[in-house]
Amino acid sequence: MIVDTHVHIWEMPPIAPIGPSALNFTSKPSAHGNAELQLADMDANGVDKTVIVQTSFSTWDNEYVAESAIRYPDRFVSMGLVDPMDDDNETEAVRWMDERQMQGFRFHPQYYDYVDILKRPENDAMFRQIEKREGIVQIHNRPEHAHQLDYVAARYPGIIWLIDHMMYPEPNMGPSWDVYKPVLNLANHQNVLMKISDIHNRSESDQRPFADMHDVIKMAIDSFGIDRVMWGTGYPGYHR
After folding, report:
1. 64 contact partners, CB below 8 Å, separation of at least 6
2. What CA–CA distance (Å, rounded) separates 169 from 96?
3. CATH number for the domain harbouring residue 216
4. Residue pLDDT tens, the chain, 240 long
5. d(C-alpha 98, C-alpha 103), whole Å
6. Are 75 and 39 within 8 A, CB to CB?
7. Where is the Amidohydrolase-related domain (predicted)?
8. Is 237 within the bounds of a domain?
9. 104-107 and 76-81 strand pairing
10. What is the rounded distance in angstroms from the CA atom of residue 152 to the CA atom of residue 163?
């Protein structure tokens, strides 16, 4: 069985809203990338199941992604977004998980340069509810934000924490990789897993096998162990 742990689907208005989920995220799609297109691509490439992740331009309304996973339960599971600056986000997290079968949520510390969003005391109740449901949280950020994940992984051991896109290692961080070591040190938390995804966009080469990324991938596998590493594509990005 082949499972892609990170893909995006979306629809356009009036079917589903389009708009930023962070003030500094301005990308917008020009056409839909719906569930049926994703299924066709999966079938064409021999992918059995995917984790569909709410995009950053699809607002905080996760309904299209949630409904797609409910409609195609043998092919999709869903991950949503919840506003980390909303003091009532506990209610939203519970609603999406209990009523719409979402497995968890994605957060983007790198979009907030004025606050450590994962450390906000106001988010404690939300994380407690996710932990109570044995939920999953995926973190989209860069190495300089690794300290936030270090904090919450220790504070909420009942949550499985996923590092999206390897936390964006860059070839110019080598050969010492000192800048990246805080990410590798997150392997000390048994509830943190590494997602090897979106590698081609980090490479300085536009040709497979993107060899300048091989050393850091091996370092990640050695640090986390193969049982705590997963593969994802990030397909199709945010445009079709």
Report:
1. 9, 10, 11, 15, 16, 58
2. 32
3. 3.20.20.140
4. 999 999 999 999 999 999 888 777 778 888 899 999 999 999 999 999 999 999 999 999 999 999 999 999 999 999 999 999 999 999 999 999 999 999 999 999 999 989 999 999 999 999 999 999 999 999 999 999 999 999 999 999 999 999 999 999 998 898 999 999 999 999 999 999 999 998 888 878 888 898 888 999 999 999 999 999 999 998 987 655
5. 9
6. yes
7. 3-237
8. no
9. parallel
10. 13
**Residue 97 domain boundaries:** 3-231
Residues making up the chain, counted from first to last: 240
- C-alpha closest to that of 141 among 114, 166, 109, 178: 109
Residue from 182, 166, 145 nearest 218 by CA:
166
Q: Quote the number of domains for the chain.
A: 1
Q: Report the distance separating Cα 224 and Cα 219, nearest Å.
A: 9
Phi-psi region of 42 (alpha: psi -120 to 50; beta: other; left: phi over 0): alpha
